[in-house]
Structure formats: C-alpha cells, structure tokens
Amino acid sequence: MAQLERAKFGSKLGVILATAGSAVGLGNVWRFPYLAGENGGAAFMLAYIGCVLLLGMPCMVAEFIVGRRAQANAARAFRTLGGRTPMALVGYMGVITAMLIIGYYAVVSGWCLEYVFASAAGRFSDVTPGQAGRYFADFETHPFKPVVWMALIFLATHWVVAHGVRDGIERASKLMMPALFVLLLVVVGASCLLPGAWAGVEFLFKPDFGKLTGDVLLAALGQAFFSLSIGMGCMCTYASYFSRQTRLGSSAMQIGVIVILVAVLAGLMIFPAAFSVGIKPDSGPSLIFITLPNVFSRAFSFAPALGYLVAIMFYVLLTLAALTSLISLHEVCTAFLHEELRITRRRAAAAVTALGIVVGALCSLSLGDRRWLSVFGRPLFEQCDFVTGQVLMPFGGFLICLLVGWYLPHKLVRDEFTNWGTLPGRFLRLFVLCVKYVCPVCIILIFLNQLGLL
After folding, report:
1. How far, in Å, CA of 94 to CA of 234, rounded?
2. pLDDT of 133-176, one tens digit each?
3. Taking the C-alpha atoms of 103, 105, 109 and 112 in order, what is their torsion angle to the nearest 10 degrees?
4. Angle in degrees, 0-180, between the axes of helices 90-120 and 345-365, rounded to the nearest 10
5. CB neighbour list of residue 52: distance below 8 Å, 6 or more residues apart
6. What's the pLDDT score for residue 450?
7. Do 74 and 68 meet the contact criterion of CB atoms below 8 Å apart?
C-alpha cells in the first residue's frame, strides 16, 4: 500500500501557536486561578513556574523527539520506537486518554458557550451568588441544554480538524491565539483598574513562603503537567508535523513561556475583580461558573455597559481557550484513525466527532440524578476526569521519560535535540538528566499524591 503523505505545519509561527494552543486551554484560564486561590496565590504561582520550566518542558521535548522521529500518529510513533517493550503501548494509552478527556472537556466547553449567551442576555446582572449557583445547578443537570452546547462545540472543532493541518489547525490557531491574548489583556486591564483591585494583585505577586508546603508543591507539579498536555498524545502528534528545521528545545521554551504568561494573566483577570467585590480567592472550581458570573456587573456598577461587555468577553475568552485544546485532542484521535485505518481525514474526523458527542452526552447526563451513568460510585463525568488526570496522564508521562531517557539510543536523542548536529547541544546533558532521573521521580510523587498515597 502507498505511504500516506505526511502533513507539515507551514511556518514557525504556526508551530508555536498551534502547539501553544494545545497547552493553553481551560487548564490555564480556569484551573490555574482556582488552584492558586486554594494554595496561597503567589507561593503557588512561583512553584508552578518552576515546575513548568524545570520539569514540564523536558517532558515536552521528550514527546517532541518521539513524534518527529517517528513521523506518525501517537500510537504508531511509540510502537515504532518502543519496540517490544511496554513503552510501545504509551501511544495507544494517549489516544484513549485524549478520547476520554474530549468527552468531559467538551461538556465544560459547552458550559462556557452557554455563559456567553447568558451574559449577553443579561441573566447575571444583579444576581446574588446563591442565585448564580442555582442557575448553574439547574443548567448543569438539565437533560437537554448542556448536550446541545456540547454538540455545537464539537461541530466547530470538527470543522477545523477536518480541514487538515495547515488549512484547519494552523490557520485556526493563527486566528484564535492572538484573539485570546487580546481578550485576556482587555479583561485584565479592566479588572486591574477596579477599586480595591491591588489586593488581588498582591495576592498573586507577593509570596508568603510559609504557605509553600509539600501539598502546594505537588499541586503545582500536577498543574504544570496538566496545563502542558503531557501524556495525552497531543505534543507527540503535533511534533509529527514538525519539519527537520524546527528547533525542539526553543519551541518548548517558547510554548512554556506562553503557558506561564497566560496563567499569570488569568490570575490578574480574576483575582483583582474578586477582591474588588470581597469574594474569597479560595472558592474552588466553582469560581468561574458560580462565583464570578455577577462579579463584573457588581465591580463595574459605576459603568454597567462596561461590566456587561467585560462579562461577555470573559466567557468568549473561556470558549476560545477550550476550543484550542479540544482541537489538539480531536487531532490525536483523528490522526490515529486516519493513518491506522487508512481512511480519509474527513471520515476519521467525522468518526471522532460522532463518538465524542456520544461520550460527551453520557458525561453530561451523568451529572443529573442518573445512577446508571455512575462508575464505581462516581458520575461518569467525574470518573473520566479522575482516570485521565490522576492515572493515565501521570503514568503516560512517566513512561515517556523512561523511553527517551533509558531506552532510545543516545545518538537518536542527540540527533533530534540538535537537529542532526546543526544546533549546539549545550543543554543536552541537562535534558537527559531531567528525563532520566528528575522528571520520573517527580511524576511518581505526583501520581502517589493524586491517588492519596502520599
């Protein structure tokens, strides 16, 4: 059979924006602020930045090496390089992880889209936190509305992925990532100019090192791997579209800086507004959908039209962030079906979209009083989140480090890291040290902590 022609990103900017879009999602805009709020603000942020730079980026480069070397989807890439070892199964685990994440992630993405229209309709003007909570609870458990929004998000994602790497993913990334940054900066500016906003800025940038406990460090490690999409096949799949001239180390550094910048801006967007109206920063995962819906209208009571506009932009921003990550997760599964079953990209994308909508619908319906959609005592939505985030992703990252650090020939790693000797390899030893020893140990600590064994 003829070999399928391998698609490539068309430019360096496309590489950076598409790969950064995979990492910059709700994990940064939604998950980082509430974790920072629960874990001491500035102390957590410093720990998170350290984990991204020292641990997350070496793992990202390791995935890049596997993807570009194999020039294949995640499953085939690890099967090609892993040989007859358990590492050959890492790619299949990444595809399964991506498919499970797609299901519940699309549900949350649909919530964001609902809140765009709800904000535009003025439903959160002059409501109490209790009323906002009841609105979210009624919407979340509704048998029909969340499924519709989830399906719409999926169809938008499908349209991008079905158009291919350059005309779909790269082009969409070049539009959405700048738009995401512009919206971020606008909302950050509006938030930081509020009365009493400086308390929120201090919370994010004035560290209290007494709060830097072992639990905070482990939470920062977990967030670093989650926000960089380590262990779910995204980075490996995107790296298979890199050219031989793409600088893996530089790309990882640029992506890491973008991820950190977005996380910091997300904190500056939320905490000054929250402190301005007296909301506690440790409100947890409900911060976005229950605590914040009426924050901007209250904070901008002196200019209601401005508060109305900022609230809409805030949820548009969340939707864009969700889409950039969903596209990369969808591509992991689409590339797998396209290459392994040798079907057209459009048919592969349609199959992933159809399956994703089914999984997403089941996850959404499980949040109501439907015990038949519970798995081991948890709603399917929560079980997918737990299994992927606390089991599959840490274990996948661990095996990737073992494969690149211990199994692959050193010459192969050196050639990929230095672009076949055309780049200086002064950081090669540090990279090998990290993937051989530092990252595996830290991932084990994350894994044990998330399972409640540490």
Report:
1. 8
2. 788 888 988 888 999 999 999 999 999 999 888 888 888 888 88
3. 130
4. 70
5. 224, 227, 228, 256, 259, 260
6. 61
7. no
